[in-house]
User: Fold this.
Amino acid sequence: MMKGKKEKEKIEELENNISEENNQEQQVDNSPSSESEDKNALEKSDEKITELEIQVNEMKDKYLRKVAEFENYKRRSEGDQLNLITYGAESFIIKILPVIDDLERSLQHIDSANDADTVKKGITLVYDKLLKVLDEQGVKKMESVGKPFNVDYHDALMQRKEDTAQPHTVLEEVEPGYIYRDKVIRHAKVIVSEDVSENNVQSEETNSDDAVNNKDN
Assistant:
């Protein structure tokens, strides 16, 4: 009985040894496969890293190009603005040069002119030409005489009594005013009619004060 038990233990021991050997063989057999898989995974990782590096470099290149384009655009814009400020009046000057030419020709012939009316007509033509150039640029001369006084357009130099005009009416224009587009660039200097009723009230108040003072005395 004891002998059979020992033999059974020996058999189980042999089976365990065989099982361990098989496991070792499987491990040895599976080892190259595992290394291959790790190698493939490593290669794929390297490929992915390389792909990402390429994408990063491409993005850097695009970014640098955009920065360079923006800098060029900025320099061009600054140059255009500087030219606009420096030479903004060029077109107006070109248009006004013919008027100066006409004035110079008039001055050259004014001494030899026998008729004052001819000189006057010539100067009038030059004047009208100048006004036309200004009008094309949006500059217009105000028409003030006969209009109600307006502080937005007129600068009153004095008041004058005028029975035929309404109070606070522009009677005379000492210096014309000008408007550039929708902005007053020079107020017209004018003489305005007095308000007779205001003067009468002031006169009555003065007389009343004088009468009170005389009474007290």
